[in-house]
Amino acid sequence: MSLVRSVMTVGSLTLGSRVFGFVRDILIAAGLGAGPLADAFFVAFRLPNMFRRLFAEGAFAAAFVPLFNRLAETEGRDAAERFAEDALSVLLWTLVAAIVLGQIAMPGLMMVFAPGFLAEPETFAVAVELSRITFPYLLFISLVSLLGGVLNSLGRFAAAAASPILLNLVLIGAILVAAPFFPSPAHALAWGVAVAGVVQFVGLVVSCRSAGLPLRLRPPRFDAHIKLLLRRILPLAVGAGVYQINLMIDVILGSFLPAGAISFLYFADRVNQLPLGVVGVAIGTALLPQLSREIRAGRDGHHSQNRAMELSLLLALPSSVALALLAHPIISILFERGLFGATEASLTADALAAFAWGLPAYVLVKTLSAGFFAREDTSTPVKIAGVALVGNVALNLALIGPFQHVGIAAATAASGWINASLLGWILYRRGHLVFDSQLIARLPRIVAATVGMAVIVVGLRCGFEGIMVGGTISRAIGLAAIIAAGGFGYVGLAFLFKAATRNDFRSLGRRKSATPIA
User: Concatenated DSSP letters for 165-230?
Assistant: First the structure.
């Protein structure tokens, strides 16, 4: 399967998940608003997801895929399957122990991850209660991440990419159907998170069986391959999960701000995650197995790396600019209803505009990280992540005073650029990132097409000013028209300026090389 086809498979299913995710968040915003109860739920929801994205999704995917591919090519599929079963067993029992400890230590964890809640004992108590309900989600979704890594290594991307849709459907059911039977909608959502983990796990088990890999649960076995995997997990947890660590720092600092700040950041990040998930996660997921195979076969992987960067910027730059320019109408139309009023919408939109400027960096981090992980390099990304984290904390402390939650979002965006810049620079210095003539020629053309699109969007927004202050339906129609015109305008300008051609998308996965430029 070519890189672009893999990207389209993951991207289209991720887009479907994000659509259901928006429906979920619209219902959550209407039912919970942006007050203390919403803040408590979002902390409870982020806690297992942060650990999952750091240690399971980020670390296991980045460390597991290259090792699995190497074993499959050098020792055969049976050896790779046994390695996957050993990894599954070790991960399972490690997570069971972690969840038991987490349940016992949950008040202490809440003091670490939301220390500002200590000033509001009722909010703190609810956050602890909800987190104890959601924390077992870590077990099942981490196993889902491992099973997804197995399927991705086999070139089967659809099942893992579709798995988040199940989470969103369960949470939609929780808020619409189950909420009246619980003390609050937040409690119904917390139980929905726990149930969704089981549903996602069962779905991936079935997918693995249909792929001919019915992984069996064995007693834990720490052979040389598992020991190598474990040695790589901790540094990869920071290197691959710096974005999640930054978001957790946002939650910690946001807990000291007035009630609602965590909710504003959550809803803004959810909108920002749409292009990040469709573009960044899709490209990174598809690129890592391909680069791993190419490097293992003795090829340099420059062509795939360049085309992935080109596609990343071709899609991420216009998305970033459009989100920043249209943040207020987007948030207002999506969330401004029920307990989520105009003030909450405006404050959330300000955070989205700040997050949006970091979107190209977030996508490039996914793409550039694959260049390290495919070469089984774990030490360099963790050092880079450490620098980016220090930058994030320093910028947060500098900006949170004058700009409140918007300063937190801006610091996260800047940290993403620090991370992406250092990843690219070190790959270049090592000769693992050789910019070819096509990428160098097209970057300014992509920028020019993006500027043209921005002019179109600003002009149309000014022209539709009367519609954009009307009712919800008229505003939604006006916003859709602006987005459609901006999108078509960008595509037209991209072809006009030769920033992209139809043949590029057809041949993206081929292994031909453009002229390298040192």
Answer: HHHHHHHHHIIIIIGGGSSSHHHHHHHHHHHHHHHHHHHHHHHHHHTT--PPP------HHHHHHH
Write out the two tokens for 111: 């003091």
For the segment 177-182, the average pLDDT, to the nearest whole number, is 92
3-state secondary structure 292-352: HHHHHCCCCCHHHHHHHHHHHHHHHHHHHHHHHHCHHHHHHHHHCECCECHHHHHHHHHHH
- What are the tens digits of pLDDT across the range 58-79? 566 667 777 887 888 788 878 8
Q: How high is the mean pLDDT of the chain?
A: 82
Q: Which amino acid is it at 259?
A: A
- The Cα 414–Cα 392 span in angstroms is 7
Among 82, 517, 3, smallest CA distance to 290 is for: 3
| DSSP secondary structure letter of residue 120 | S
CB atoms within 10 A of CB 480: 11
Q: Reduce the DSSP state of residue 516 to 3 states and report it.
A: strand
Phi and psi at residue 516, to the nearest 5°: -75, 145
Q: What angle do CA 433, 392, 306 make, to 5 degrees?
A: 15
If we measure between CA atoms, which residue out of 122, 139, 143, 114 comes closest to residue 43? Answer: 114
Burial 452-467 (b: 16+ CB within 10 A, else e): bbbebbeebbeebeeb
What's the pTM value of the predicted model, to 2 decimals?
0.71
Alpha-carbon distance 302 to 409, whole Å? 33
Nearest to 223 by CA among 370, 85, 349, 324: 85
Is residue 370 within 8 A of residue 288, CB to CB? The reply is: yes
Q: Which residues are 340's β-sheet partners?
A: 337
Which pLDDT score is estimated for 251?
81
Find residue 265's DSSP bridge partners.
Answer: none
Beta bridge partners of 516: 436
Q: What is the rounded CA–CA span in Å between residue 69 and residue 151? A: 11
Angle at which helices 242-254 and 106-113 cross, to 10°: 90
Instruction: Report percent pLDDT > 90 for the chain.
Output: 33
